[in-house]
Specification:
With 70 residues, the chain is mainly alpha-helical. The chain has helices at 8-17, 23-30, 34-48, 53-63. The longest helix is centred in the middle third of the chain and has 15 residues, at 34-48. The protein is globular, with a radius of gyration of 11 Å.
Length: 70
């Protein structure tokens, strides 16, 4: 775990993941397909070294790195 070079779109997806949105809800919010959301999630996990989205979400929220309300 360390610094991850996430794209702007991956950061958008991450922010919405932190709002506990499903892949389908994220897809609608970002005007992309659900498969694209799943692709972004897989990239985020790969870049950060986490296996589960929820573990990553808890980590970034507790560190204050993402404000899900922004």
């Amino acid at each position: 775990m360390g610094e991850a070079n996430l794209t702007a779109r991956e950061m958008e997806a991450m922010r919405l993941m932190c709002r506990h949105m499903t892949s389908g809800e994220i897809a609608k919010e970002l005007f992309i397909s659900e498969n694209t959301v799943k692709f972004h999630k897989a990239n985020i996990l790969s870049k950060t070294g986490y296996e589960k989205s929820m573990d990553l979400v808890v980590y970034v929220l507790t560190k204050g790195w993402i404000n899900p309300l922004y």
